[in-house]
Design a protein that fits this description.
The complex is a heterodimer of chains A (369) and B (697). Chain A has 369 residues and is an all-alpha fold. Chain A is built from 12 helices and 2 strands. In chain B, β8 and β9 form a beta hairpin. The chains are: A mainly alpha (369), B alpha+beta (697).
């Protein structure tokens, strides 16, 4: 019987589990808001279901594309250029909640920043593959890479979406660390971070408020501490078994963004520590399978791309959860696969499609004969 | 690509895996902290924010007479309250409110402007429904109404000392309302609204259902109570007495059928009277009994075999020296039989019987009759009286005590002593409450009569015979009934004023029972300081006669065939005037003492109906207050039974009813859902400005 290589099933099912679990929780968390705003409790759920279906098709499609195609400049350069154009164009769009993040097609909003992240990761993977071992050459290698990534980060940050920008920088930094970037740069960056923190956080009142709220949420529970207080109450009141699926009370306008950024809090309230642990473990499995794929990659491009995608999903998940649990100050970062929103879901599914193709290619190479 | 470089990269990849794993572990630990260890704290915080708790009023139980007529019931009334911070124009609003509520506009403006009352001020309690409607019509900001329960005594003064009253806080303040407060009151329930962050309620649940108060069914009979009240008032009027008491007791059981004290008070407006008026003199006041106390010596001497009914006792022409003190009779007698000693109430004769008994046996006898200890009646404020131990008696005590001096007793104690003769030798425990029932009328418990034999039937019979002689031939002739045989004893005691027996202030009493040979009731009539006549046989006996005569007829006891028929016809017409065919709830105007002096003040029942008659509205589904208001509006009387929502009415809706006629309506407890729905609506009105922020950017 002929050996028939397949992609990583565990990764596939983990991603699928997270997406379906996410759908259920989005339905629960958004139903009241949907009923009050759209007169139909399944409004957001049905949208999200449609996104997930499209996402599945996208993932399947990307899974069939040999990942090595993504390092081809004829693919990568147009992709990057398109992202730049969209990121610039989105700034001209009317602001929603004070931010220019969405391109609108009818009632559907599309976030270019999500796709820019994948493009940048492909670029960085290509760069690290191309200049393997030369990364510590500052002016010839590190600076150009830094400028390129920084350019995208700035475009995202001015939307403003500082959370996404910082997240992108963090992923690239970890990739550079793995690529062998000298410790000196990390020390230097730390030295630069202190004044940057002062000017971009301490001096910006709403960010500083969030830091304060993070440190003492119950000091001003009706004001700056509102989000964190409500989030902690949701998670804490869930206890071990939770109030039951659909029984969240904090979703009744207590929790801001219950179905997106604070979805994890609703999970904690409705399903207790059983539900929350399940989510954390699922992300951990995703991460470990992703790293396994990276380590088995046939080339360095595959290694960095797989690691980048894995880190993107894992770091966003950890940051989002830490935020909900008041381990970090709140910053608008969605929970991958689960939070309500099409762009984020599509990105995660596309990226997973790339990972799955990597795993397929790895097995193909390992296959006997 | 060097090997060392590759291995360093693998080390760094391992560090990244380690870092992510460590971070995940940290999150898991945090979850354990929040969801396991701190879960109770957050659950509490959650319910504090997500729920609004309110109490549910538990209706107070009803007090019924022995025929289930309501003596005390509760109706819901409105209290006007203000939230001045929501008023746009305080002086203007205050002016409008003041004119309707009959308040001083200046004072009201100052009170509403006081920062201490920014969020809550009571405008006026227990306001008239019509006044409420007028204020509601103005649609003023920051003015609303809160339902409060008000105790209503439909018969006003009737049985006031037995019933007592309920104070402003809803606690029993006197009488049965105090004695049975725990059972009458029930317990408040708690319900909570689940509210969202916009303070909209979306679910109501009962955390603790209210427990409705239990109702009391008394042995008091409203008709008999009325007779006692009326005759006492008439007697006080006729004799100029300062105060007085009438008690009618069922001889066999000690159940009290009527207990009347003068002066009375109106339980509906108890706080317009001095606290002195609230006192139940029958159980709380101490007095020297005088000759009625002779029952103790007479009985004890018979029981001890120291005398017999036919024995002739030398009454020494009216004087006897005991312990160096000369005791006198009001008239000098020679030889009197045992019965005659009581008939003519000879102090000398009784003192001689007392001397035969000796101090210890006399002391034991009076304790056996219950003097010096509480009767155990279920009324508050009962005192034990004053009986000194025989070791502390002086040389003349034995004489004085024999005819009722040097001891302090309550009216109920002395009545209870005489009652032991009436029922053939039993000391009973007097009681006012017959049984306790729940809101459905089901029995909770019965107050069982308790009694104890304290003398032989023969002794009781001998004393009864002597007491009948008192009525037939002796000091109590004016107590004689028409058509019934009665027995009793007169008593005239000098009051002690400034440590000396007063020559002009007396307590005049008559205690008797009827009809012989099988007494049904024992009646005490006692007048404090009568000014026109002072002998018990002179002023109290006639009252005894009128009360007993009428009560026996009320009880439909056939007259003695051996006696001439009574001239009096059963149930005097005046009774029916006073008790308009058992109309427990009188129109509001007749009992509300805090009516505003507004232009619409309906001091008395006002009739708004145009013609002679009007079709009777359908009251079903309405509250007692609503029904009452409608009845006032169309000028008819309401005979209400039960509490809650009207379910049945007679005559039926649509019947043409003439004003002044009576409509009887049965109420049952409204179901909880309805009460909750109303509460929820009220909550919705209040919530407006207590909003929380929805979310923040």
């Amino acid at each position: 019987m002929a050996y028939k290589p397949s992609s990583d099933k565990i990764l596939f099912f983990t991603a699928g589990f997270l997406a379906i679990f996410g759908l259920v929780m989005v339905y629960s968390a958004s139903s009241v808001k949907a009923a009050s705003e759209h007169g139909m409790s399944s409004y957001f759920f049905l949208r999200q279901l449609a996104f997930a279906a499209i996402g599945l098709v996208l993932m399947y499609g990307v899974m069939k594309i040999d990942y090595r195609r993504w390092q081809n400049p004829r693919v990568l350069i147009p992709f990057l250029s398109l992202c730049v154009v969209l990121l610039l164009f989105v700034l001209t769009q009317p602001a929603i909640n004070g931010a220019h993040r969405w391109l609108h097609f009818g009632s559907f909003g599309f976030q270019p920043s999500e796709f820019a992240k994948l493009a940048v990761l492909m670029f960085v993977a290509w760069f690290l593959h191309r200049y393997e071992g030369e990364i510590n050459r500052f002016s010839r290698r590190l600076l150009p890479l830094g400028l390129a990534v920084g350019f995208f980060a700035v475009l995202i940050a001015v939307e403003p979406d500082l959370g996404q920008a910082l997240c992108l920088c963090l992923i690239v930094t970890v990739l550079l660390f793995v690529a062998g970037l000298s410790w000196r740069y990390f020390l230097g960056a730390a030295a630069l971070a202190i004044p940057a923190f002062y000017f971009f956080v301490v001096k910006v009142p709403y960010r500083w408020d969030r830091i304060q709220a993070f440190r003492n949420p119950f000091e001003d529970p009706m004001g700056t501490g509102w989000q964190i207080t409500q989030s902690l109450i949701a998670v804490g009141s869930g206890g071990v078994t939770g109030l039951g699926l659909g029984a969240s009370r904090q979703k009744l306008f207590y929790l801001p963004e219950a179905s997106s950024d604070f979805l994890f809090a609703v999970i904690g309230e409705e399903l207790g520590i059983i539900g929350t642990t399940l989510v954390v473990v699922a992300f951990l499995i995703y991460f470990l399978r992703g790293v396994r794929i990276a380590l088995r990659a046939r080339d360095r491009f595959g290694f960095y791309l797989a690691l980048g995608i894995t880190l993107m999903v894992a770091l966003q998940a950890l940051i989002n959860i830490s935020m909900v649990l008041a381990l970090m100050p709140t910053k608008g970062i969605a929970l991958p696969f689960m939070s309500q929103g099409g762009s984020s879901l599509w990105l995660n599914m596309l990226a997973t499609g790339v990972l799955l193709n990597l795993s397929y290619q790895n097995k193909l190479a390992e296959a006997p004969g | 690509m060097s090997n060392s470089g590759r291995s360093s990269k693998n080390t760094r990849t391992a560090l990244v895996i380690l870092g992510i794993s460590f971070w995940s572990l940290l999150i898991l630990l945090r979850l354990v902290q929040l969801q396991v260890f701190e879960h109770p704290t957050y659950r509490r915080l959650a319910s504090e924010r997500q729920q609004v708790r309110r109490s549910i009023h538990a209706p107070r139980g009803v007090i019924y007479d022995s025929h289930m007529a309501e003596l005390a019931t509760s109706v819901t009334v409105s209290t006007a309250v203000a939230e001045p911070r929501r008023m746009k124009d305080i002086p203007g609003t205050a002016r409008e409110l003041a004119s309707i509520l009959g308040l001083d506009p200046g004072k009201l403006t100052r009170r509403l402007s006081d920062p201490a009352h920014r969020s809550f001020a009571i405008l006026k309690r227990r306001i008239d429904p019509k006044v409420e409607a007028r204020i509601e019509a103005l649609d003023l900001d920051g003015v609303y109404f809160v339902d409060e329960s008000m105790r209503v005594y439909p018969n006003r003064d009737l049985a006031c000392h037995t019933l007592g009253f309920v104070n402003m806080n809803g606690d029993g303040g006197a009488g049965l309302e105090l004695q049975y407060d725990g059972e009458l009151k029930g317990s408040e329930g708690i319900y909570s609204f689940d509210v969202d962050a916009r303070r909209r309620s979306f679910r109501v649940h009962v955390d603790k259902p209210p427990v409705q108060g239990k109702s009391l069914v008394l042995s008091i009979d409203k008709s008999i109570q009325y007779i006692a009240d009326r005759e006492l008032a008439a007697g006080i009027e006729a004799t100029g007495a300062k105060a007085g008491t009438i008690i009618v007791m069922e001889s066999e059981t000690g159940r009290i059928l009527a207990l009347s004290n003068h002066p009375q008070f109106n339980s509906n407006k108890y706080n317009e009277y001095e606290a002195d008026y609230w006192r139940n003199r029958a159980v709380s006041d101490l007095f020297e009994p005088g000759s009625t106390f002779k029952v103790v010596v007479a009985t004890a001497a018979l029981e001890a075999g120291l005398t017999h009914p036919e024995e002739k006792i030398d009454c020494q022409m009216g004087s006897i020296n005991i312990g160096g003190h000369l005791f006198r009779d009001h008239k000098g007698y020679g030889l009197l039989s045992f019965s005659q000693v009581l008939e003519f109430s000879s102090n000398v004769g009784v003192a001689k019987l007392g001397l035969r008994l000796g101090e210890q046996r006399l002391y034991e006898a009076l304790r056996t009759f219950g003097f010096g200890s509480r009767t155990g009646v279920d009324l508050p404020g009962e005192i034990v009286g004053l009986v000194r131990d025989w070791h502390q008696w002086s040389g003349l005590s034995i004489g004085a005590i024999s005819f009722g001096q040097e001891v302090g007793v309550t009216s109920l104690q002395i009545l209870n002593a005489i009652n032991a003769i009436a029922n053939g030798g039993f000391r009973v425990r007097p009681s006012v409450v017959d049984r306790v029932i729940d809101e459905n009328g089901d029995l909770v418990r019965v107050v069982a009569p308790e009694r104890e034999r304290i003398m032989s039937p023969r002794t009781a019979e001998a004393v009864t015979h002597a007491f009948e002689g008192v009525v037939v031939r002796g000091t109590g002739k004016r107590a004689a009934l028409e058509g019934y045989r009665a027995a009793g004893k007169t008593g005239t005691a000098q009051k002690i004023v400034n440590g000396r027996y007063s020559p002009s202030q007396y307590v005049a009493s008559f205690i008797g029972f009827a009809p012989l040979p099988q007494p049904r009731i024992t009646v005490l009539v006692q007048l404090d300081e009568p000014s026109r006549g002072y002998y018990g046989g002179e002023v109290s006996a006639p009252i005894f006669k009128r009360v007993t005569q009428e009560v026996l007829m009320q009880l439909r006891l056939p007259p003695d065939p051996n006696l001439p028929l009574p001239k009096l016809q059963p149930m005097a017409a005046s009774t029916q005037d006073y008790l308009p065919n058992a109309t427990p709830v009188r129109p509001l105007g007749s009992f509300s003492g805090r009516r505003p002096a507004g232009p619409e003040q309906p001091g008395v029942l006002t009739v708004h109906v145009g013609g002679d008659s009007a079709p009777l509205p359908d009251f079903r589904g309405q509250s007692k207050r609503e029904v009452l208001n409608r009845c006032i509006d169309i000028g008819i009387h309401l005979e209400a039974s039960g509490a809650g929502v009207a379910v049945f009415q007679s005559p039926p809706p649509g019947t043409r009813i003439f004003r002044g006629e009576t409509c009887s309506v049965t109420f049952v407890q409204a179901n909880l859902e309805k009460a909750l729905a109303a509460a929820e609506a009220q909550y919705a009105a209040e919530r407006a400005d207590t909003r929380m922020p929805d979310s923040r950017p």
